[in-house]
Design brief:
It contains 4 helices and 7 strands. The mean pLDDT is 87. 30% of the residues are buried. Helix 2 runs antiparallel to helix 4. Helices cover 23% and strands 30% of the residues. Strands 1, 2, 3, 4, 5, 6 and 7 form a 7-stranded mixed sheet that branches. The chain is α/β, with parallel strands linked by helices.
C-alpha cells in the first residue's frame, strides 16, 4: 500500500531566537510543492520539487525561453503552498504557481521550459504569505481548489478569503 504524503508543518526554530547561525536562511519546513498535470488533470504532492527533482523535472534539459516550448509540450504548474498555524489551527497561508513545460517526445533526455528565477521568486512570495494565482488557467485553478479543499477541510476553512477568491475568480 502506497504511503500518503502529507503537507509539511512548521518545525521548531533552529536558532531558538538567539540570532546566531542560520539567521536569514530560508526555512522550507512549512512549504509544500504541488504539481498540476494539465493534460491528465491530475494534482499531487511532490516534495522533490523543492530541490528541482520532481517527477516531471527528471531527465529534462530545461531552457528559460518559453518560445522554444511549442504545442508539442505537456503543461504543468508547480504550486508552492505555505502553511502557518493560527489560533484556529493550520491553514494555507500563501500560494503561488510557476509554469513548467516538458516535451511529449519520448527521448532519453527530454526538452523543457521553466524559469528558475521565477520559481524561486514565487516560492519566496508563498512563504511570505502572498497569493499569486491570477496567471493560472481556469481548469488548473479548479483542480487546485478541489485538491486543497479535499486534502484537509479545516486547512481550507481557516484559509484567507484571498486564496478562495483567486481560485474561484474565473469559475
Amino acid at each position: 500500500m502506497k504511503e500518503k504524503i502529507h503537507f509539511t508543518i512548521l518545525s521548531n526554530d533552529s536558532t531558538d531566537g538567539d540570532g546566531g547561525f542560520g539567521v536569514g536562511t530560508l526555512d522550507l519546513n512549512n512549504v509544500t510543492p504541488i504539481i498540476i498535470d494539465c493534460e491528465k488533470e491530475h494534482v499531487f504532492i511532490d516534495l522533490e520539487a523543492l530541490h528541482g527533482r520532481s517527477i516531471i523535472e527528471k531527465k529534462v534539459r530545461f531552457s528559460p525561453d518559453l518560445a522554444q516550448a511549442s504545442d508539442d509540450y505537456n503543461r504543468y504548474w508547480i504550486v508552492w503552498v505555505a502553511l502557518q498555524v493560527g489560533e484556529n489551527g493550520p491553514y494555507y497561508a500563501g500560494c503561488t504557481a510557476s509554469e513548467v513545460r516538458v516535451s511529449k517526445e519520448e527521448r532519453r533526455i527530454k526538452l523543457g521550459y521553466k524559469s528558475l528565477p521565477e520559481q524561486v521568486n514565487y516560492l519566496d512570495k508563498a512563504l511570505k504569505g502572498n497569493f499569486l494565482l491570477h496567471h493560472v488557467d481556469t481548469n488548473s485553478k479548479k483542480l487546485l481548489s478541489q485538491f486543497l479543499s479535499e486534502f484537509n477541510e479545516l486547512y481550507w476553512t481557516h484559509s484567507p478569503e484571498e486564496l478562495k477568491h483567486q481560485l474561484w475568480e474565473d469559475l
